[in-house]
Amino acid sequence: MTLPELLSTEFQITDGDLDKSLKYQAKYGGHLEQILVNLGSLPEDSLPEVYSRYFQLPELDITEWLEAEVPDIEPETFSLLEAACWSLLAVEGERWTFAAKYPLDLSVNEFIRRFNIEANIIIGTEADIQTLNRKFNLNATADNDDAIIGDEEERLRELASEAPTVNLLNSLISRGLRQGASDMHLEPFQGRYRVRYRIDGVLHEVERLAPRMQLPIVTRLKILSGMDIAERRRPQDGKIAMKIANQELDIRVSALPLNEGESVVMRFLRKESVKYDMEVLGLADDVQNYVNQDLAKTAGVILLTGPTGSGKTTTLYTFLNELNDDDVKIITLEDPVEYQLEGINQVQVNSDIGFDFSAGLRSIVRQDPDIIMLGEIRDKETARIAMQSALTGHLVFSTVHTNDAASAYTRLLDLGVDEFLLNAALISIVAQRLARRTCEHCAAEDPESAQLIAKYDLDKLATKFNLSKPSLVKGMGCDACGHTGYKGRIAVNEYLRCDEEIMKLPKDSDFIAKARQHNSASGRRNLLEDGFYKALLGQTTVEEVLRVAG
């Protein structure tokens, strides 16, 4: 099978992309598969599989070689192999075992022919080969800081602009995007530089880079995000706007000094992948009906509560999108503005110049808005102005960090907001968590369904909410979900209507318990019950519900 045939049949490269790449190759030269990578038609992390299938060579399992004995190798030979992205794994007489990114490298093959070496070649990724080469890099220094004495900043820039650094970072970002990661974490761990993706709220380790790659990777990220590359003693934040694999991407970058180096976290913000639609949120029908009633009001405060990463901002954006129309003016005050919403005036706070939430809120109420969204209520002044804005005819949305809906009352009281102001302004409070959604491609009945239903008394919940024949499903794991059994996330919510009964309750130490009792008596679910309810609907699993709301 020819390479174009392999790429077409096994890697779904279209005839149009193949024709375009073959014409480019005929005119300018180069490797066909690399041209397709540059076009964005072929994922770069697919190259090892392409070479493995085309050359009929095995793929590298790095775990088999990390603890293997280091072969004795001359510095000149090591330099030759490293430059070609090859690694020598083992030597048995005249039979040498190599790991190679690309097996037809001319310089290495000429070396093999000249010394009559019987070569056994395994296809590996660039990151894995660099990790293995670190084991016997005779020229590497033990400490990155010692390697950049002298004109340090210029040396840092050189390290960051070298092709292996650029290609490795682009590959890691592209791979994260294809796997649906929301964040990429890079951090020192057990002598190496670990790479983890957060996918559907859970971290997964994907690579362990050679320690010497830490400084070049961190430096390149600092340059791209506008940070000070010479500063490694204090935290820094930055932003990158880039295009990878035909995707427009904003990346928030945070660097934190550690004892062993720096931890860098990158948050991927993909505008085209976010849909602010009530159906996508996954609110239960009854909760969505309550919310729709609240959105129809013209004044009052609607609060979202939950920890960082629980989807509060996305939910608020969805509410705003429902209300966004030509006859209303909507202004948001955010830190930071992560996604631009068409037709909505979004304001970025800047604490460095004294433009915080309270100062910003005082300014935007003079802009005659109908609807206001505050990214977060953090202090008494912001909370007070928000409540007063609601009493003067504005519909206000915001968030607070509490564990459940009723706790939002006590949090606001702790900030110093008067009880009468809360009773007069609050419409409702929605607590939220994000649970991983069961993969629809491999979902099947959970073998432990009956035991879990009995253990958590789910029959009673099913009867209360008119669910017949309760059963639980579980993702068995497939290619579509990366063999995790989950694909995407769904909101788990607790809705608290700030009705007359809630207003009458004294906001003392017994308030939270009494508010929960009232909510339950009104036929509403707490976070755990809503999670179990969605598990009974087959949307998630009991295990996942317990992880996020247990």
- What spatial order of strands do you see in the largest sheet? 12-11-13-14-10-15-18
The helix content, as a percent range, equals 25-40%
Beta-strand portion reads 15-25%
Q: Outline, from the CA principal axes?
A: elongated
Structural class: alpha/beta
End-to-end separation: 54 Å
Number of strands: 18
The averaged pLDDT comes out at: 87
Radius of gyration: 28 Å
Unreliable residue stretches? 138-150
Largest sheet: 7 strands, mixed
Supply the number of helical segments: 23
Kindly describe this structure:
The structure is a single chain. The protein has 550 residues and is of the alpha/beta class. It is 39% helix and 24% strand. The protein contains 23 helices and 18 strands. Helix 2 crosses helix 3, helix 14 runs parallel beside helix 15 and helix 22 (527-536) runs antiparallel to helix 23. The longest helix is centred in the N-terminal third of the chain and has 16 residues, at 163-178. The radius of gyration is 28 Å and the shape is elongated. 37% of the residues are buried.
